[in-house]
Write a structure and sequence with these properties.
This protein is 52% helix and 15% strand. With 123 residues, it is α+β, with helices and mostly antiparallel strands. A three-stranded antiparallel beta sheet has the order 1-2-3. The radius of gyration is 22 Å and the shape is flat.
Length: 123
């Protein structure tokens, strides 16, 4: 028999109260952004987004260089158009961690490719 403890019930109800109070106070307005009418516009939007991401990565790198301790290296994964953060030991130049990891980046790239095989146009 599945039962929920009183603590679980209280947490569930508190979450519902918070959700209800937030949904009453905030309203989501639809954004009137025109859909691209041609492939050229879509390509232009992609290039603009990529340029913005690369500019953000450069700015993050500049700010990171001012901090002492471990180095943070910001790069852009061209295949995913996402920023990749690499934590490097400043004395040994050894990679401590990469966010997202290389494995996760490969999985995301494969998923993106698989979605591209399934869907070739946006409605």
């Amino acid at each position: 028999m599945n039962t929920i403890s009183t603590y679980g019930k209280t947490m569930a109800m508190d979450g519902q109260k918070v959700y209800n109070s937030l949904s009453k106070k905030t309203s989501v307005e639809p954004v009137d952004t025109p859909m691209p009418s041609s492939a050229a516009e879509v390509l232009e939007n992609i290039e603009q987004n990529k340029a913005q991401i690369e500019a953000s990565a450069k700015e993050l790198q500049r700010l990171s260089d001012m901090v002492t301790g471990n180095k943070l290296k910001f790069t852009v994964n061209d295949e995913l158009n996402k920023i990749v953060v690499t934590v490097v030991n400043s004395s040994t130049n050894e990679v401590i961690r990469q966010i997202p990891s290389e494995d996760l980046q490969r999985i995301q790239a494969r998923m993106k490719h698989a979605i591209g095989l399934l869907f070739d146009e946006m409605i």
